């Protein structure tokens, strides 16, 4: 009956689910998308939560895995130009400002940034490179 009322196309029950860190004290649940190994949502019951803080009570909580949801969505990542982050380079900063004024998105790569992580949000097909002292938009040749 619960499965029919949920509105899901398919509802299954796994009485051997042992995922997690064993802090659940009752029923656990997860939501999966067909064709995907990882769930998009996982949660469960916690009894006596807050006991350390003087008030124990039952609760239900869940985690929503946004990366899993985004992986199956038909999203269009916006086009952007990758640029180095050199605040002391006036010519670079001027070129970035010019591109942005023309409507381009320019992503300045910080030292702690990972290009693969940036590419989850943007299409980084081009980058700003310095050729003979002039900052030029060119096709990306590496994941620098």
Protein described:
Helices cover 19% and strands 32% of the residues. The chain is an alpha/beta fold. It folds into two domains: 71 residues, no CATH class; 61 residues, no CATH class. Strands 5-4-6-7 form a four-stranded mixed sheet, with helices on one face. A hairpin with a 7-residue loop joins strand 2 and strand 3.
List key phrases describing it.
144 residues; alpha/beta; 2 domains; four-stranded mixed beta sheet; three-stranded antiparallel beta sheet; 4 helices; 7 strands; 32% strand
Envelope shape: elongated
- What structural category characterises the helix and strand content? alpha/beta
What Rg, in angstroms, do the CA atoms define? 24 Å
Q: Bin the strand percentage.
A: 25-35%
Summarize model confidence as the mean pLDDT.
Answer: 83
How much helix is in the residues?
A: 10-25%
Query: Would you list the SSEs in sequence order as H and E?
Result: HEEEHEHEHEE
Query: Total number of β-strand segments?
Result: 7
Instruction: Give the total of domains.
Output: 2
Q: Helix count?
A: 4
Q: Which consecutive residue ranges, at least 5 long each, have pLDDT under 50?
A: none
Sheet with the most strands, sense and barrel status: 4 strands, mixed
Strand order of the largest sheet: 5-4-6-7
Distance between the termini: 54 Å
């Amino acid at each position: 009956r619960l499965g029919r009322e949920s509105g899901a196309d398919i509802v299954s029950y796994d009485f051997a689910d042992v995922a997690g860190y064993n802090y659940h004290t009752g029923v656990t649940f997860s939501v999966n998308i067909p064709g995907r190994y990882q769930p998009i949502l996982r949660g469960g019951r916690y009894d006596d939560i807050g006991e350390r803080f003087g008030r124990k009570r039952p609760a239900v909580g869940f985690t929503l895995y946004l990366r899993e949801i985004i992986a199956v969505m038909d999203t269009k990542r916006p086009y952007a130009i990758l640029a180095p982050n050199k605040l002391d380079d006036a010519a670079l900063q001027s070129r970035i400002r010019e591109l942005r004024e023309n409507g381009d998105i320019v992503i300045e790569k910080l030292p702690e940034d990972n290009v693969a992580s940036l590419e989850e949000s943007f299409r980084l097909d081009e980058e700003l490179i310095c050729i003979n002292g002039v900052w030029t938009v060119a096709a990306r040749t590496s994941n620098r």
